Amino acid sequence: MSGTASAPDVDVIIIGAGAAGMMCALTAAQRGRSVVLLDHAKKLAEKIRISGGGRCNFTNLNSKPENYLSQNPHFCRSALARFTPQHFIAMLDKHGIGYHEKTLGQLFCNDGSEALIAMLKSECDTAGVRWCMQCEVLNIEQLNSPPDEAISHSAKLPTTAARSPVISQTGEKAGGSISSHFTLTTSRGQFRTYSLVIATGGLSIPKIGATPFGYQVAQQFDIPVTKLKPGLVPLSFHPLDWQPYSELAGISVDALVSYGKQSFRENLLFTHRGLSGPAILQISSYWEQHQPLHVNLLPDHDMQGLFAQHRGSRMLLSNFLAQYLPRRLADVWCGQMAENKPLNQYSEKALNGFAAKLLDWQITPTGTLGYNKAEVTCGGVDTHWLSSKTMQVNNVPGLYFIGEVVDVTGQLGGFNFQWAWASAYAAGQAV
Ligand SMILES: Cc1cc2nc3c(=O)[nH]c(=O)nc-3n(C[C@H](O)[C@H](O)[C@H](O)COP(=O)(O)OP(=O)(O)OC[C@H]3O[C@@H](n4cnc5c(N)ncnc54)[C@H](O)[C@@H]3O)c2cc1C
User: Fold this and answer.
1) Last residue of a domain, which of 314, 334, 368?
2) How close is the Cα of 417 to the center of ligand 1, in Å?
3) Which residues are registered as beta bridge partners of 59?
4) Cys-Cys link to 382, which of 8, 167, 224, 285 (CB 3.0-4.6 A)?
């Protein structure tokens, strides 16, 4: 794999052996392309391994463009239409891997995510993909001229190993018949390739190998990256504000959580530092700093009507609420919102006020628990610069971005893996 030869060693190099990288590698290799899949980590696909509590929620049967956040909401449409959950399920069936639907179209592996990783690896191996693990990319150089002449255009490679890539573009702007190719200098030698696919994912969970590499590559090629923020992440509150609720840690309620036009009816979990659970993870991807969230703690109840029915009752407010909410939550809520008196000692106006607060509890988180706890990174490589059919950068022939590094972020429930598979398949068909 040395770089002294003038012709590329390999048709396709994919950086990032995660969900998208492996799917792209096996798709391209099955089409007869020579493929090298390169990753800096020791183990491949760490995120698949830990996903879905170790069982990997690998797709969602109801995947639609509406399940994705992006500055360019229609971008994902084409790729999702051409590689559907059924295509992925067909691969599982071929390998005899069992799965089940948990809820809302979410499919999980019966026997853990290792089976899915083994399936993708085996498909890659059978198709002849070559692996290059524990490999750091130090420099990427694009040469927009015929391969035989390209070497004379190349910039001098850095002599010291830098962790972030030094990327240079030499030669004239590609287009027409001029072919583009790339030279990669890595900790394991030099590679030359016609197609370079960036599948290095987002920033979440750095301790298992997440890096900003993909965004750096985009920036070096003058491709904009949209605003990045942790998504599908627990929310935190100021410790003093949260102090009364911190004792509720571990309590979960079925709630309707809203921000702007988005609402999610799922479980909400109290934690020592704030709120988590599926409803909160979902809304966190939409939530913007300093803005309030609206929480309906009793979405199935007409609280105003119930209070009206029991206005004459001597039952304590907390005991009344404990019929509908967990007892500890009812106690704390009463302590925060009202004196805990018998219902018949409140005015109708006061009871209506309690009902309104239960149905629209407004809370303003101070922040999120950040990339260490986030399942995804919202934002990414600006899709206006990519082909929605192939994921190729419009003005850099041969360069592709796939998976989470792209500004397409799925909601909770298997949508992120479905995007990884679909965008990878689109690129794998084109490289
Ligand atoms: C705890 C957790 C649970 C999740 N559960 C689910 C779930 O159940 N369902 C779902 O749909 N989504 C889930 N997700 C999200 C999902 O894992 C990601 O969206 C998906 O893995 C993205 O795939 P990807 O291939 O783009 O990136 P990744 O899977 O993150 O792969 C990126 C690869 O690039 C490598 N890499 C990074 N930087 C470099 C570099 N500088 N040089 C070389 N290699 C590099 C990494 O080592 C990694 O192997 C979960 C995420 C987390 C963190």
Assistant:
1) 368
2) 9
3) 107
4) 224
- For residue 408, report the distance from its CA to the centre of ligand 1, in Å: 14
Q: What is the DSSP letter of 146?
A: -
Q: What is the DSSP string of 308-338?
A: HHTTT--SBHHHHHTTTS-HHHHHHHHHHHS
CA 19 / ligand 1 centre spacing (Å): 7
Residue where the block lists tokens 């693990």: 133
d(CA 230, CA 227): 10
The mean pLDDT values, 10 residues at a time, for the chain of 431 residues are: 58 98 98 98 95 95 98 98 98 97 94 96 98 97 62 30 44 44 95 97 95 97 98 97 94 97 97 97 97 97 96 95 96 85 95 95 96 98 98 96 98 98 98 97
**Residues 271 and 218 occupy one common structural domain:** no
Pocket of ligand 1 (CB under 6 A): 15-21, 39-41, 46-47, 50-52, 56-57, 137, 199-201, 204-205, 209-211, 213, 375-376, 403-404, 414-417, 420
pTM attached to this predicted model: 0.92
Specify whether 187 is located in the same domain as 279.
no
Q: How many domains does the chain have?
A: 2
| Residue range(s) defining the domain that contains residue 296 | 235-368
- CA-closest residue to ligand 1 atom 12: 416
